[in-house]
């Protein structure tokens, strides 16, 4: 994984998976994941992958991913195709290289505003104001109704986003 320079994310709780041979990973529980964007014949996809030693295999597709995308598997030819288009190859999307001069092409009169585009300002909330309002919920209505159904991948992405926003202090748990 180090050779790929992937941005690894710590799992909130370690996960246990079963390897192809029925055993557990050599290192025990899995502590890291990575969100990877890749292309399958022009269709861009982003999925979350658990990171562990897969032995001689470059990667192993899990049941969750296979269930979500429901590919067609031809065991005779050992090929995997997705209903939208045949799979010829999967490639990790190239990450944009960091710009050595991020202000290149920005007019000088805007240089004073560069800090608002940084990570620190992005994660900062504006101060509370007198016009901030709360949402008053009625007790005679259920709180936990799903708005709409989501695929497993979308649900996982939403849960990751909510966890990150909670951690950054931008949102708080419902009362």
TrEMBL record:
This is Retrotransposable element Tf2 protein. The lineage of its organism: Eukaryota, Fungi, Dikarya, Basidiomycota, Agaricomycotina. It comes from Rhizoctonia solani. InterPro entries: DNA/RNA_pol_sf, Peptidase_aspartic_dom_sf, RTL1-rel. SUPFAM superfamilies: DNA/RNA polymerases.
């Amino acid at each position: 994984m180090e050779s790929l320079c992937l941005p690894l994310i710590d799992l909130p709780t370690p996960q246990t998976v079963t390897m192809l041979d029925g055993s557990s990973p050599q290192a025990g529980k899995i502590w890291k994941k990575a969100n990877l964007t890749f292309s399958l014949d022009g269709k861009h996809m982003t999925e979350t992958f658990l990171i562990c030693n897969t032995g001689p295999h470059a990667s192993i597709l899990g049941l969750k991913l296979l269930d979500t995308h429901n590919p067609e598997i031809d065991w005779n030819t050992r090929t995997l195709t997705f209903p939208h288009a045949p799979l010829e190859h999967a490639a990790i999307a190239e990450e944009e290289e960091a710009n050595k001069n991020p202000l290149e092409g920005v007019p000088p009169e805007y240089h004073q505003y560069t800090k608002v585009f940084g990570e620190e300002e992005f994660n900062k909330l504006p101060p509370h104001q007198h016009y901030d309002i709360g949402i008053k919920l009625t007790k005679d209505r259920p709180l936990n109704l799903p708005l709409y159904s989501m695929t497993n991948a979308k649900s996982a992405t939403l849960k990751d986003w909510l966890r990150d926003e909670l951690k950054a202090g931008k949102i708080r748990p419902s009362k």
